[in-house]
Amino acid sequence: GKDVVAELTKAMQKREIDMRVSALVNDTVGTLAGGRFTNKDVSIAVILGTGTNAAYVERAQAIPKWHGPLPKSGEMVINMEWGNFRSSHLPLTEYDHAMDTDSLNPGEQIFEKICSGMYLGEILRRVLLRMAEEAGIFGEEVPPKLKNSFILRTPEMSAMHHDTSSDLRVVGDKLKDILEISNTSLKTRRLVVELCNIVATRGARLAAAGILGIIKKMGKDTPRESGPEKIVVAMDGGLYEHYTEYSKCLENTLVELLGKEMATSIVFKHANDGSGIGAALLAASNSVYVEDK
User: Fold this and answer.
1) pTM for this one?
2) Where's the Hexokinase C-terminal domain (predicted)?
3) Does residue 38 surpass a pLDDT of 80?
4) What's the number of domains the chain is made of?
5) Residue 222 burial (CB < 10 Å; 0-12/13-18/19+)?
């Protein structure tokens, strides 16, 4: 509950480090700032990694909670914390409810729990466990390792999903190395790949729906007389960068939701370490320089 900047400043003073904290920047705000520095059309930033969040540029007059002087640009960046989004319209499965109940923060970060990298592998594990118990997909006995929460990580799920070998060797190796399930049939391996696809597709489509929600809020989801207004979305995070099927599905879903004509105005730009670069730029813009005379 303490001021993190004040505490960091105290710690630096204690160690006699001559440094000043000039900016405390959320990762999505940093990504947006870094992207905007090189491309003025960047107006949305999304992090899809272990967790997820988004930020966008809003008209200051459209912010009811803002009571101070309006910024000269007339715009302000909104950090959405969309990972904590929850709605009765957000469809949750029994696996989602069970995972949420068992989590360290039940009832919180619901959107994050169904579309980010921390949780996709765990959702897959829970589905596989249920099928092992009720359908015996791995034999008469349920593999003991399959009962361990978070033993199946999203990078392993991604590797299985992207397996293009004729015998799905990667899937077989992952099941053996991680879950100690040996001698799986090709039919079982295909089932695992299909489940990877289902879990990843749902997460990607929900993330795309979130981006569409931002575009709608900005009033840029319909064509104008002068043509569609270009929107660049700065994307960062390991899930988006490394899980190719996930990122492809996200982008294709936005085309599906917006329509091909409008979708041509949406550009996804991978901003590698965008949050760190953006934070550095914001800190530099807020720094006090002393020139030697």
Assistant:
1) 0.91
2) 44-284
3) yes
4) 1
5) exposed
